[in-house]
Specification:
By secondary structure, the protein is mainly α. Helices cover 72% and strands 0% of the residues. The chain has one domain: Up-down Bundle (Ferritin).
Amino acid sequence: MILRLLPLLVVLCGCASLHETSTQSPAPPSSTSADSYAVLFDLLGDEKDVSKLLIIKRERAELRNLIREIARRCGQGHEELEGFGRTDSSLNLKAHGLPAIESETRAAIAKTKAKQLLTESGKEFELRLLITQHEALTYGAHLAASIAKTETNPQRAQFLRQLSSDLTALEQRVTSLLLASYHWPERR
């Protein structure tokens, strides 16, 4: 069963590889916006499936509930972006415009993180999962906010601002869960 889930985990951890920005030269605004939508669409697509990882990992309810909420919100965002793509043919959600080396690097990071999540359990698994979620949510929130600044369609701009706000709130919950388990050593 674990071997069948390895491809899924590579996809799920791909979200963590989206956190580095591309070093490509700036493109014209319309291309940049379209490329950014594709990157955001990919990120939300990865995040909407993150709760599937809990099928093979049995973790505490607090973590499970948060991961399910992340997956639910990202699934909603993914569906809304898909709808925008259907109604606006200029919005290509498949072409992210990243250089090949950037795509390869992201895939390598995703594979490494997937392997780590598969082989770890307990607090190591939870810590690594929360860190990947922190990275993905932070990146997604900032990406959505940045796209919103250049979006001329009021409906999409509002969607992006709300998505950014929601992802920020989820990131804060991830941070709170991380901090709740973090203890300073006693001073002597």
